[in-house]
Amino acid sequence: LLVKIIDTPQFQRLRNIKQLGGAYFVYPGASHNRFEHSLGVAYLAGELVEALSRKQPELKIDDRDILCVKIAGLCHDLGHGPFSHLFDGKFIPKARPDIKWKHEEASVKMFDYLMEDDEVEEEMSEYHLTDQDVTFIKEMIDPKGQTKETDTPDVSHLKLWPYKGRGQEKSFLYEIVSNSTNGIDVDKFDYFARDSHHLGIQNNFDHRRFLEFARVCKVDGQKHICSRDKEEWNLIDMFNTRTGLHRRAYQHTVTKIIENMINDAFLKADPFIQIEGSGGKMFKLSTAIDDMEAYTKLTAMKRLIHKQGCFKVYSLSDRKPVQRSESRSNVVVLPGSSQDPSSSVLNVL
């Protein structure tokens, strides 16, 4: 089933989305993409849930639970746009200040769109996954967003269980992929190790020790994934690694300058780039998030330019269609000035 999901266009688009956005222009080694990160999270999610099942059979973790956790790990980043966090952290807030949108929301919508694939749907039925299991997967991908969409009134003061996919007796499963309780989850385990490797920065956190010593304990009436007291310093190293990565790479001065430049190019080009979505409707960079067929095509644009009818780009001056250079097939040439911001964004992408 995981292979069927990986083979879909919705997942394959992650091959063309840089994990670290603008940091690639500062650290040439940071060329890794969301694709391999998603594979790693699925693997680590499986390792953790299977370890808990093996060491604590009283938790009654069944095969469907394990499969759902792996799928959630695999699909948790489906909703990322070009240059990852630059798109939802900088571009969308500037281009569409009237909405609050995060990539987790798009990940859930993209997962729904992926589920329309006949082969995936058929494979899921073979594993006897139900609508409740699908809800469970989406709740693990976006825990906060999915609880907001329920019809349940605000009962947070009553501490009622907010999820529908699994009951409160399996609350710990919601802490594996995206842990909204304390932030310790396999998503971070993978990108700490992967980003540190590609950036050439030391990672002192040993996620294998966490997987080995993790146990489910009841705390204040609810089951949580916990660590041994002797693992305190390993967890401190995890948070120190996170701080170091932000200070030395994610928030690097030149990285932020480059990302601001790319974002400015996005904003200038937004009205003139049109992407075909469902029913032949055309969408801009900023509105493609409203249609998953269009959003699936929104990755590395110079790859899309070679596909006839995928989208059209217009000059800022006379709105004539772009002509592709015959001598340099990976560069788009716009009519008019070479300083045209639409040209800049296409060359960047």
Automatic annotation (TrEMBL):
Q: What Gene3D superfamilies does the annotation carry?
A: Hypothetical protein af1432 (1.10.3210.10)
Q: Where is the composition biased (Polar residues)?
A: 336-349
Q: Which InterPro entries match?
A: dGTPase-like (IPR050135), HD/PDEase_dom (IPR003607), HD_domain (IPR006674)
In the UniProt record, which is one GO cellular component term?
nucleus
Q: Where is this region: Disordered?
A: 327-349
SMART domains xrefs: HDc
Q: Name one GO molecular function term.
A: dGTPase activity
Q: Which residues form the HD domain?
A: 34-192
Picking any one GO biological process from the record gives:
dGTP catabolic process
Question: What PANTHER family does the entry give?
Answer: DEOXYNUCLEOSIDE TRIPHOSPHATE TRIPHOSPHOHYDROLASE (PTHR11373), DEOXYNUCLEOSIDE TRIPHOSPHATE TRIPHOSPHOHYDROLASE SAMHD1 (PTHR11373:SF4)
The text of the family note is: Belongs to the SAMHD1 family.
What name does the UniProt record give this protein? Answer: Deoxynucleoside triphosphate triphosphohydrolase SAMHD1-like
Record the organism. Answer: Mastacembelus armatus (zig-zag eel)
